[in-house]
Amino acid sequence: xxxxxxxxxxxxxxxxxxxxxxxxxxxxxxxxxxxxxxxxxxxxxxxxxxxxxxxxxxxxxxxxxxxxxxxxxxxxxxxxxxxxxxxxxxxxxxxxxxxxxxxxxxxxxxxxxxxxxxxxxxxxxxxxxxxxxxxxxxxxxxxxxxxxxxxxxxxxxxxxxxxxxxxxxxxxxxxxxxxxxxxxxxxxxxxxxxxxxxxxxxxxxxxxxxxxxxxxxxxxxxxxxxxxxxxxxxxxxxxxxxxxxxxxxxxxxxxxxxxxxxxxxxxxxxxxxxxxxxxxxxxxxxxxxx
Length: 290
Description:
This protein is mainly alpha-helical and 290 residues long. The protein has 13 helices and no strands. It starts with a helix and ends with a helix. Helix 1 runs parallel beside helix 12, helix 5 crosses helix 7 and helix 5 packs antiparallel against helix 11. The chain has one domain. The N terminus is likely disordered. Helices cover 79% and strands 0% of the residues.
């Protein structure tokens, strides 16, 4: 009797944690939907290196106290996650120099396809249904690219960013259950900040006044658009499977399109809407058929 009660209690806790994880990912996707417009706006006045470095430095500062709880394994895990996240986010900013915010978001949503495809390397089989979903996604990207005048360097960079995010999601799901959340987030953010500062070092002197003038927006991008999502992802990664996280990320381009229209006046044409619909359909299909 007591064993049954214990199992019921554990199941209830598990479901509660799962739903909390879903909520955290949804909040992350909503916040990231706003960040595309902010990044695109900043690219008018700053080089990518300065944006990335300032963003990550601001994000890292609140977590400095948790660096006291380090050990070798935690340092290695945080450094790996930091490098992967830095790679994905910095390449995204580079891609945004030449493509629109909403187009960038839809291409990045391909990580929901890439996560199950990369899972094959971990022993899962590639089914015909997954291939169908991948084909739909590729068709959607072609339509998006056709509307924008063909494939560009920005499209290629953003696809690499999507691949990097997919690797990051899988690595996050593997490492987060093995380490305390806040120290892991602290190491990750400080690694990202240090790499960014090294990258931006030659540019900082010429943009210090501009950074000061836009500091409020940088605070939003660093604390709300970076630190909070990284923290939420690390918590949710304990409770929500990687492929479900990837599915929820398909909502990101929906929010990004809304905010880029609201703040930047960007719009999709007919081909763009069809292509975007194919990308979202493919990413949802890839998860429902698993």
